[in-house]
């Protein structure tokens, strides 16, 4: 991607734990950063205040004069056509008019909204593990589970910005109810909180610090704790089933796994790859490669900027190879 005009995109990455912002240039560099914790259990106005705080830091930077647009990657579901978001993990925001509010906060700049998984896919295709791949599924495995698709070498957002939202594919038909209203969703099994819950139910106990997060479960699994290993094995199985379904439907060649839970490494990816062989049996789906994401916590910001730049034609969109 080239940026002949020197214009920047203001990117926002909105999730259940953090609201991050950055000014991003056409080479993917984050020139200015801002961040607030997400007051996820508070009312809509309180959450918006946190967004406004992040935007305020960005608009105060000298580089703001070069900003041409705003790109937002938000926990979903989102409705890009309506400009609204209803994040499962932020109950105060239901059909919240985020695009209009972001436009107001940024002085009327054009705003492009996509799901956080779509943003991650845009980033990993441009600068990360899906670079040079024509057909890819990129997944965020964290507090929730999201995803995005690259098809035919282009980011595929779908009409509402949710295409590839693998976290809410049902992989356990009679499974537990999910916060989305469905049952047996990938997210209900493979997200960090549910990995922790399953490990605790299986008999794992945290260390003296009392940390029950997924990273602590991963450390226990690496040390051989059976309940921790079983929780990650179950998560890997759920992810494998979702990836296989996606590969069968749209013929992807690679699945990129990112997000905080993916930091567990082979504790998660090992059982995922093993079980993928069980589910992706057809010849055109069996060759899907599973790789870790490369861009880490910056993927949402880089991808939100890339998605906006592609949609609005701000930069010359040609994913580097």
Concise account of the structure shown:
The chain is 35% helix and 20% strand. By secondary structure, the protein is an alpha/beta fold.
What's the number of structural domains? 2
Q: Could you give a short account of the major beta sheet?
A: 5 strands, mixed
What coarse outline follows from CA principal-axis ratios?
Answer: globular
Average pLDDT, all residues: 93
Specify the number of helices.
9
Proportion of beta-strand residues:
15-25%
Adjacency order of strands in the biggest sheet:
3-2-1-4-7
Give the helix proportion (percent range): 25-40%
CATH topology of the largest domain: Nucleotidyltransferase, domain 5
* CATH architectural grouping of the largest domain: 2-Layer Sandwich
Report, as a whole number of angstroms, the end-to-end distance.
10 Å
Low-confidence stretches: none
Q: Give helix and strand order, one letter per element, not per position.
A: EEEHEEEHEHEEEHHHHEHEH
Structure overview:
By secondary structure, the chain is an alpha/beta fold. The protein folds into 2 domains: 8-119 and 298-312, ATPase, nucleotide binding domain (Nucleotidyltransferase, domain 5); 131-293, ATPase, nucleotide binding domain (Nucleotidyltransferase, domain 5, 2-Layer Sandwich). 35% of the residues lie in helices and 20% in strands. It is built from 9 helices and 12 strands. The longest helix has 25 residues, at 226-250. The chain starts with 7 loop residues before the first strand and ends in a 9-residue tail after the last helix. The mean pLDDT is 93.
